[in-house]
Design goal:
2 copies of one chain form a homodimer. The first copy, chain A, is mainly alpha-helical. Chain A contains 12 helices and 2 strands, in the order αααββααααααααα. In chain A, strands 1-2 form a two-stranded antiparallel sheet. Chains A, B: InterPro entries: GntR_C (IPR011711), TF_FadR/GntR_C (IPR008920), Tscrpt_reg_HTH_GntR (IPR000524), WH-like_DNA-bd_sf (IPR036388), WH_DNA-bd_sf (IPR036390). Chains A, B: This is FadR family transcriptional regulator.
């Protein structure tokens, strides 16, 4: 499709050096904790100035791929895979298609997490959910309704016990909020937060899965208009 | 939990300048296409050297947050939200917990995507899936089996029509492959790729959802051991 074509970005020297170093790490099969050549060695091998090299290294440091250790010099580190993602997630700078993609992604995650919930839920989790839904009946004001949405669904992500999933959701929250406050739902769901908690407490995985789908139905219907 | 505590990273001047500029963009509610102050203005306002400023700007350029336009100078751009994520996804540099998180994330996505599939599947998609599963019966060799897994499940992501989801999956593939080739499943699934295609073709969303869960059951059982 022609709208998948994006202009070729003009590469700076730092772009190229950054790519070369990443290729080098990959090809050499270097692992976390391994030492990198010195700045001088790298600059000579790549035939670039120290300034350009430092710019590229600064980027890799930002991504958490390298760190400088006392006495040992530069070593490879396990990057925080969501750290750089977090840096660019700004709803104001996001195009509409990406926003919609992310909103759908949220629905897919919540429709698919029942197994993890049933595998890892504890009595304490259920008690916390019950506390959260108690406040639902006061949720008339739009702003309060959104904060209740975030508290309830956020707690579900937490119960999955999957730290990457949980952090992912924390980052995407501003976008969910943005989409929620811009959507007008004439369709009402027949399943409330409170119903979901009761099923998670006493019902089985399949009933929960069906109930969650019914709970999210207004959003799923909304997708059909896309 | 104490294992959630990570050492406080030592910040360089470029780290701080990068954060300040991102805060500035956010606070000023700048949008895509808006012009940034010049390098000189920024260096003076932040009271830092041009070198440090350039290092920070280089990082933002790498993230796709700013670009330099002829005659207009630096402008804000819509970042490629997955671009920087892609840069750090290297299974060799990933710790075991993150790998497991990502493997679970994949299961959650595939268990939750039935609605998108039923909303967007076309006859052409089904025909392509049928082509893919034809080769399944030859999939004795481990390596070929993994490539069939990737082809089949990859096509499902494509059918969702969600570009972010699809790219996400492409990036995570090396990790899925890594986990797959390291896992030993004594449990066999009762539902094959070919069964799934037939249900997607002729069955309803609920039957597909149940069948997908049965197809992924060996992996779900594997989670219980975690």
């Amino acid at each position: 499709m022609i709208n998948d074509l994006t202009p070729i970005a003009t590469s700076t020297r730092a772009d190229i050096v950054e790519i070369r170093i990443r290729e080098y790490l990959s090809n050499k099969k270097l692992k976390t904790g391994d030492t990198l050549p010195t700045e001088l060695e790298l600059a000579e091998a790549l035939d670039v100035s120290r300034n350009v090299l430092r710019e590229a290294l600064s980027r890799l440091r930002m991504l958490g791929l390298i760190e400088t250790k006392k006495k040992r010099g530069m070593v490879l580190s396990a990057p925080d895979i969501l750290g750089s993602f977090e840096r660019v997630l700004n709803p104001q700078l996001m195009d509409e298609n990406t926003m919609k993609d992310i909103f759908e992604l949220r629905l897919v995650l919540e429709l698919g997490m029942a197994d993890l919930l049933y595998l890892r839920k504890t009595d304490k989790d259920i008690a916390e959910l019950e506390q959260i839904v108690k406040k639902d009946k006061n949720a008339d004001a739009e702003e309060f309704r959104i904060s209740q949405e975030i508290a309830f669904h956020g707690k579900l992500y937490e119960i999955t016990g999957n730290n990457t999933l949980k952090r992912f959701q924390t980052m995407l929250m501003p976008i969910f909020g943005f989409v929620l406050s811009n959507s007008h739902h004439s369709i009402k769901s027949g399943v409330s937060h409170s119903d979901l908690v009761q099923i998670l407490k006493n019902g089985d995985r399949d009933s929960f899965s069906d109930a969650m789908r019914e709970h999210l139905r207004p959003h799923i219907e909304f997708l059909k208009e896309r």
